[in-house]
Design a protein that fits this description.
Low-confidence stretches: none
Number of helices: 16
Strand order of the largest sheet: 15-18-21-24-27-30-33-35-36
CATH architecture of one domain: 3 Solenoid
Helix content: 10-25%
Structural class: alpha/beta
Shape: globular
Largest sheet: 9 strands, mixed
């Protein structure tokens, strides 16, 4: 039966108790405060449902479509500042309630020392649910309640961790058109026992009971990860991530009190299992400091239902389409589990007779080690600067960044010409650089004479929005009155871009070796009346497109976002987003693209 499941597999979702027709499953807590199932074999009829439906034991069959990624936040400043990131869950859930639906989510207990899921249909219920709790919630009885509402035809919006979302779908065992699911970008579930000990220590320290807890407060900004607590006697507690013992134990020491199953989670994969995935958009590019301070939500729309939820609030939020690779860069927890902390057992043993903060400090990395790491980082930074100076053409760096009228750049953003870069700019040509550096001629082989060539004629314009990296032996030529618009892209050696009218390259585009991108035929073809018949036409390469190698892009085409063009392909017509394009000179869509990443393939391990 289900209580024979190995502890490192059980996620503590509580679903097996609800699915049992005999109510023969209860829960016990181990020495870390995590719940695990226990079967009453006098009631058990050996139906096996608890094992058959356990999401930890079955293959994940709930995967959705290729996600669309957005950065978003509520236009209402108060809502945004009072939510963990950008306020997207609050906005979606509030609209869902106003449309007559029920919401399901996690709330604190009355004493703020535990958490459980509830079903609600009022804004007051939503206000209890809003704000991530960061430790394990009890869902006993929730799955039955959700099913009863769905069978009555009520609309239900469920929110929880990926494993809880999978548990609900496994419990229901069929699709419901009136069920909507939101999951979280989850780093892992923390111990309820550890949290209870933390609150008890704080109450003792302040001589009062807790009446409000926010584990991610923004009084010092979104990135501060501040812990804010209010007490019944009027006192308040606010500590940022550097000083909060709860945050230090959770984030600072690789999950000191995280559930065992979270270190090898089954749900760190793409596509996702829910309609919408929400989280923080860490390491986002191109954002003003005020937006970074107030918080930015990451939104992954995984299904048409997810599109419906987002559409329901689009007039009350700001949202901007972004790239999956950018989101993954700041949220590795989408794909990778954190390592198990070697001090976890030591922490819980210490917690038996020590205060929470003392147990954290005893298992936290010591100050001498941290100081040593800081020294190493400083030395490494100095070494990198020296290495950088030796690689670039310092004369051209100074000339173009400080004395040339051709280069208009933001503060602390530069044109960086590596050795071997040749730049030929007419008097009226302009390169506008913002967001990140424009690096030219990188990755050059030692003693190689390979050149990177940049030529801009007449009144040519190149708008570099968020930087670019061009490897050695690349060519960019912009003709008189032509405009080259680029967001961040990289171009490998042999790439040639010639712009006679307009070429647009989106965010996070990767150009492999030997690319040819043209927006013109460059010489006239005449019709029967001796008039030109082959005018120039703009090229559009949308966000997060990978052109692999030896690809030619001809004038007038659009390549949709999140696509891959395979080697030796000629692009002479438009292609939709999420396409894998192949076929040589007769390029065509051969499959749907489920995403790609700049991360290199690891060498196969030796057997």
């Amino acid at each position: 039966m289900i209580d024979k499941v190995v502890e490192n597999k059980c996620t503590g979702c509580n679903m097996c108790g609800d699915v049992c027709p005999q109510h023969a499953i209860k829960y016990y807590k181990n020495n870390q405060g995590f719940a695990y199932p226990k079967v009453d074999y006098e009631k058990c009829i050996n139906c096996g449902l608890c094992v058959k439906r356990c999401p930890a034991l079955m293959e994940n069959n709930f995967k959705k479509e290729v996600p669309k990624v957005y950065a978003a936040w509520a236009q209402d400043e108060n809502i945004r500042l009072n939510c963990t990131s950008g306020g997207m869950f609050y906005m979606i859930a509030k609209q869902f309630i106003l449309n007559g639906g029920y919401i399901v989510g996690c709330v604190y207990s009355e004493d703020f020392k535990s958490a459980n899921h509830i079903v609600g249909n009022t804004v007051e219920d939503l206000q209890k649910i809003m704000g991530t709790k960061y430790f394990q919630s009890n869902l006993e009885g929730i799955y039955d309640k959700v099913k009863q509402l769905l069978e009555k035809g009520e609309k239900v919006l469920f929110s929880g961790t990926p494993c809880q979302s999978a548990a609900l779908q496994s419990f229901l065992n069929k699709e419901y058109a009136n069920l909507y699911i939101i999951d979280l970008i989850c780093r892992g579930i923390n111990s309820p026992l550890a949290f209870k000990k933390y609150i008890e220590e704080i109450e003792e320290q302040y001589g009062s009971k807790v009446k409000l807890v926010r584990l991610r407060d923004k009084k010092k900004g979104w990135k501060s990860a501040g812990t804010y607590i209010e007490f019944e006697n009027g006192n308040t507690y606010l500590q940022d991530k550097e000083n909060s013992p709860w945050i230090k134990g959770w984030l600072g020491t690789e999950g000191l009190y995280m559930r065992d199953s979270c270190h090898h989670c089954n749900y760190r994969s793409l596509p996702r299992i829910s309609d919408i995935t929400l989280g923080d958009f860490w390491k986002i590019h191109d954002m003003k400091p005020e937006n970074i301070f107030k918080g930015i939500s990451a939104v992954m729309v995984n299904t048409p239902k997810g599109e419906t939820l987002l559409d329901s609030i689009k007039n009350e939020i700001f949202y901007d389409r972004r790239n999956l690779d950018e989101l993954l860069n700041g949220n590795p927890a989408l794909l990778y589990s954190s390592r198990k902390n070697i001090n976890t057992e030591k922490f819980f043993k210490t917690l038996e007779d020590k205060k929470f903060s003392e147990a954290v400090e005893k298992c936290y990395i010591n100050k001498k080690t941290r100081n040593s790491e800081k020294i190493v980082k400083r030395v490494y930074k100095i070494f990198k600067r020296i290495k950088f100076i030796l690689k670039i053409n310092t004369f051209k760096f100074i000339k173009y960044n400080y004395f040339s009228k051709n280069i208009i750049r933001e503060k602390n953003v530069y044109l960086i010409p590596h050795k071997g870069t040749v730049i030929d700019l007419s008097k009226k040509a302009r390169i506008y650089i913002k967001g990140r550096n424009l690096e030219l001629g990188t990755n050059k082989l030692k003693k190689s004479k390979a050149e990177t060539l940049i030529r801009m004629s007449g009144n040519a314009k190149w708008y570099v929005n968020n930087g670019a990296t061009l490897f050695y032996n690349t060519v960019v030529e912009v003709k008189d009155n032509a405009v080259l618009n680029t967001k961040f892209f990289s171009a490998n050696s042999g790439t040639v871009i010639v712009c006679a009218k307009e070429i647009n390259i989106g965010e996070d585009v990767m150009l492999g070796r030997n690319m040819l991108i043209y927006d013109s035929d460059f010489h006239q073809v005449l019709d029967e009346n001796m008039n030109p018949s082959n005018n120039t036409k703009a090229v559009h390469i949308e966000d997060h497109v990978w052109l692999t190698s030896n690809v030619t892009v001809l004038k007038g085409v659009t390549i949709g976002r999140d696509s891959i063009v395979t080697a030796q392909t000629l692009i002479r017509k438009d292609f939709p987003e999420n396409s894998i394009i192949a076929g040589g000179s007769s390029g065509k869509v051969v499959a749907q693209c489920n995403g790609w990443s700049r991360k290199t393939i690891k060498k196969e391990e030796k057997r």
